[in-house]
Amino acid sequence: MHPRDQTIFALSSGRPPSAIALVRVSGSQAGRVVTGLAGKLPSPRMATRTLLRDVGQRPIDDAVVLWFPGPASATGEDVAEFHVHGGRAVVAALFAALSAFEDVRPAEPGEFTRRAFENGKLDLTEAEGLDDLIHADTDRQRHQALRQLKGLLGDRARDWRARIIEASALIEAGIDFSDEGDVPAELIAPALAKVKALLAEVEEVLAGQGRSERLRDGLVVAIAGPPNVGKSTLMNQLARREVAIVSPHAGTTRDVIEVQLDLDGYPVTVIDTAGIRETDDPVEQEGVRRARARAADADLVLWLSDSPQEAIDHDGVAPIWKVRNKVDLEEAGRPLAEAPGQGSFQISASRGDGVPELIAALVGFAQRYFGGTDDELISRTRQRKLLQETAASLRRSVAVVGQGEELAAEELRLAAYSLGRLLGRVDVEDILDVIFREFCVGK
Ligand SMILES: Nc1nc2c(ncn2[C@@H]2O[C@H](COP(=O)(O)OP(=O)(O)OP(=O)(O)O)[C@@H](O)[C@H]2O)c(=O)[nH]1
Ligand SMILES: [Mg+2]
Question: Which residues surround ligand 2, an ion (CB under 5 A)?
């Protein structure tokens, strides 16, 4: 049997040991597997308590079994779920029993979802939403993924595709009518009007500022500055744990250290870097090189210093906030010379003074950066690229219609093709592997 037609199984719940482990089976052999292990098939969709036994009739575990005959199942195939005790040995014994069946094998990552997609249970944009939901770390990412999973973009794309096909049918009917000479204007004009209206809708969706795409990836904030100014101390404050080594030696941090923060539901990655200075130590030189490179790519740079006259030594397009640290030392001696201005802060990273204000400003920055994502439909570069191609083809079809209706019809075909790729309905074998490989096993 071809691997594609084989029955697959996987642990769909978290890593054992856990209270309960959920093992899913999907494919034509699922019924035979359940009968083999549980003695008989339970009623469809009814949780049924059963003792599972292997081929030698040795007990595996006392389990709850669910039976979902296809096509009304998650994958569209026959599906069985075994809820067993989540011990490593229990799961291993169940896996061994499952593998003993002919044409039953462990699933590849994302293979359940891929089968659901291939059986038309969801389109590719929804599958992407599902992947995002599983990987969502913050509340706003979850919200965004749920919207994607609802199929809002897919619904729009299906509607556009149907209307493009209508428009090209009008044009092609015109071409068929007129053996010679021009296609009558009364056929072309309504088709063109349809295409223009469509184009406006696609462009409106594209006009979103990519905030949803950013929400998937998160915001990167780099802490940079000279050595020993307290960058790692600030990092630890933001992370609320000791992620980076702090020491009075200049040149302590060499690697780039990252922590993921959830700032008011926004995903933010903070990176702590090596202090930037000229040095002869080759290891520290490499650290400084990495620090510069990461800070140059960041979305926001916190330039930390411990003296008022510190010059900023940084290249990049990202905004830079000046953060003056160790103000506790200055307070003890003389009063602070200046009050903090726009994009400028005074903190004591070791005592925590000024850190809440800095965090509040970061939340504000994240709010502006991600903006309102509620009306955005695009969440991936792949989707944006295909919609751009669609819009370009629609634009060309309007532009070339004067030179020949066949040319316009061909552009419309291309536009429909791009939308088909967006939905995963045409010619996407190459990208399917890439997308589904990112999924977890068991999903
Ligand atoms: N008084 C005072 N000392 C601080 C403050 N923040 C950090 N320090 C001290 O400054 C020294 C350097 O701190 P680090 O956090 O290691 O500085 P860094 O910028 O990461 O240094 P490198 O990794 O070497 O570039 C340590 O001795 C800290 O305890 C502060 O707000 N006040
Ligand atoms: Mg450091």
Answer: 231-232, 252-253
Give, for all 443 residues of the chain, the pLDDT tens digit.
888 899 999 999 989 999 999 999 999 999 999 999 999 999 999 999 999 999 899 999 999 999 999 899 999 999 999 999 999 999 999 999 999 999 999 999 999 999 999 999 999 999 999 999 988 999 888 988 888 888 889 999 999 999 998 888 888 777 766 655 555 667 788 888 999 999 999 999 998 777 778 888 889 999 999 999 999 999 999 999 999 999 999 999 999 999 999 998 899 999 999 998 898 999 999 999 998 898 898 999 999 999 877 778 877 788 999 999 999 988 666 555 555 666 789 999 999 999 999 999 999 999 888 876 667 888 888 999 999 999 999 999 999 888 888 888 899 999 999 999 999 877 666 666 766 777 777 77
- Whether 217 contacts 370, CB under 8 Å: no
Rounded to 5 degrees, φ, ψ at 158 are -65, -40
Atom 9, ligand 1: which residue's CA is nearest? Answer: 230
Q: Note the pTM of the prediction, 2 decimals.
A: 0.74
Ligand closest to 244 (CA) is 2
Using most ligand atoms within 8 A of CB, pick from 350, 351, 353, 355 the residue to mutate for ligand 1. 350
How far is residue 243's CA from residue 254's CA, in Å, rounded to a whole number? 14
**Residue 355 Cα, ligand 1 centroid: separation in angstroms?**
15
421, two tokens: 């790729």
Which residues have CB under 6 Å of ligand 1?
227-233, 246-248, 250-253, 274-275, 325-326, 328-329, 348-351
Paired residues of 51 in beta bridges = 62
**Bridging pattern class, strands 320-324 and 344-346:** parallel
Query: Distance (Å, rounded) from C-alpha 349 to C-alpha 234?
Result: 5
Can you say whether the dihedral through the CA atoms of 164, 167, 172, 173 is positive or negative? Answer: positive
- Positive or negative torsion for Cα 336, 337, 342, 345: negative
Residues 314, 224 contacting (CB under 8 angstroms): yes
Spatial CB neighbours of 435, under 8 Å, sequence gap ≥ 6: 110, 124, 127, 128, 131
Residue position matching structure tokens 């960041």: 298
Tell which one of 228, 256, 307, 327 to mutate to probe ligand 1, the residue whose CB is within 8 A of the most ligand atoms. 228
Alpha helices, DSSP H, located in 3-151: 30-38, 88-99, 111-118, 124-135, 139-149
* String of DSSP letters for 393-419: HHHHHHHHGGG-HHHHHHHHHHHHHHH
Residue nearest to atom 21 of ligand 1 (CA): 228
